[in-house]
Structures are given as C-alpha cells and as structure tokens.
Amino acid sequence: MTRSWLYVPGDRPDRIAKALAVDADVVIIDLEDAVKPDGKSAARLHAAAALAGDSRPQRWVRINAGAEGRRDLEALASAATRPEGLVLAKCESVAWITEVHWSLPGIAVAPLVETAVALRDLDAIVAAHGVTCCHLGEVDLLADLGGRLPGGQGLIDHARVRLVIACAAAGLAAPIGGVHLQIDDLESLTGTSTELAHLGFSGRAVIHPSHCAPVNAAFSASPAEVEWAREVLALLNGSEGAVRDPSGQMIDEAVARRARRILATLS
Fold first, then answer.
1. Where is the HpcH/HpaI aldolase/citrate lyase domain (predicted)?
2. Which of 35, 103, 108, 176 could form a disulfide with 85 if both were Cys (CB 3.0 to 4.6 A apart)?
3. Second-level CATH architecture of 4-218
C-alpha cells in the first residue's frame, strides 16, 4: 500500500539519502519544481545513482514536461537501475504518456493533474496505457484556474471528486492527494488527510519527512475497521441466505466490497 509519497529534490543527494531512511512508502526524486534550471543535469545524475539499492521504500522520479522531460527520460533510460515509476509533472495529454512509454517500456506512470487542460481531459489521461494511478497537484491547479483560498476551495473539492470517479471508472488504484504546505501544522495535516481518505484517496504527497507517519496513519485502516471487515466476511462466507452484521445492518455486495478493500490495505 502506498500512502505517503515523499518528494525530495533531485539535486540534493544528502536529502535523498535521508528520505530513503524515513517511513515513506514512496520516495519521489524530483527533477521538476524542486530543482533550478541550472541544476537539472546534476539532478539527473543523482537520481540515477539513488535508484539502486533495496526495494523499500519504492523509488519514483518526477520528470519535467516538454523538452526537459525528454532529457529526463534519456538519462533514466541509460541508468543502471530503472525507477519503479514516473510521476509526470503537468501531464496534459495521452500523447506525452505514449512518448514516455516509448522511452521506458513498461514503466508505471502516474500523471500529475495540475492544469485546467488535464482536468478537462482527465478521462482520456487515466485510461492511457501504463497509467497505474493519478496524483492531484492542488496548488498549481488552483493557480491555473485563477482561484485562491479559502474561497476557491470549491475548485479543489471538484477536482478531488473528479479524480476519484475517473480513477475508479478506469480501474486504477485510488488517487493520491496533494501536499500539505504548513510544515509544522501536523494537526491540520492529519485532519485533511483523513478527509481525503474518507473521500476515496489512497494516500497523499508530502514535502517533509515529519509528515510521513501522520499520513500513513490517516490512510490505514483502524483496528476496529479491520475487526469489522473480518467479521463481515466471516458471516458472509458462512451463510447461504441474507446476512446481517453484529449491528443489524444487511450485508450486501457493496458492504462486502468495502470489507475486502479494508483487508487489502493490510498487505
């Protein structure tokens, strides 16, 4: 299960090493916003070097769009070890996803939805070959739409719902939410992460190691939920007719599916 996706600047090998040592499910080595234009070449070298090693945590790379992205792909294609996947910054078209797969066949791809064009064409993007999940870039998307907080929260809420529906309809993993910018406000981080989990997200991106543990907890099933799921499936498996859970609720396929999803998060 991939709950916390920790971004780390690709031009900072010291920070990459620290990121790989914390409790993140995925480390995203960033070649885009976190790296200045004159640091891109060095960042590609550091990223390639960091891909080797143990399988935990997963190592992904966020690549640029356009010409810089093509240079990113060239560097990764020649690396001794491939990343487990690519986050495509400002991804707006199926054509770009196809080009990525020409460069790195079979690579897992996570489009980052952070523009109006991407949101408009979301159904086609999530259905593209090789896409395994989808990320929401809330800060950039809000800027592209001309909104601002707190009044513009409705735009973000709309985008979140669109992603959940599109990913489910395409048979993808549940989407990954955007970062929490207030580094020291862990209470707000926990609250907003819980909201995302209830909405149907499976995790969120983070920009500081201290955010990993709260995010992991928010997107994990509680002991009570696990116990409920096991009881529901045990009752369902042991009966041939209509079944009720201990609270008296009828157990139909929708309830059973929720129980299976809860237990699947334990793996």
1. 3-209
2. 108
3. Alpha-Beta Barrel (3.20)
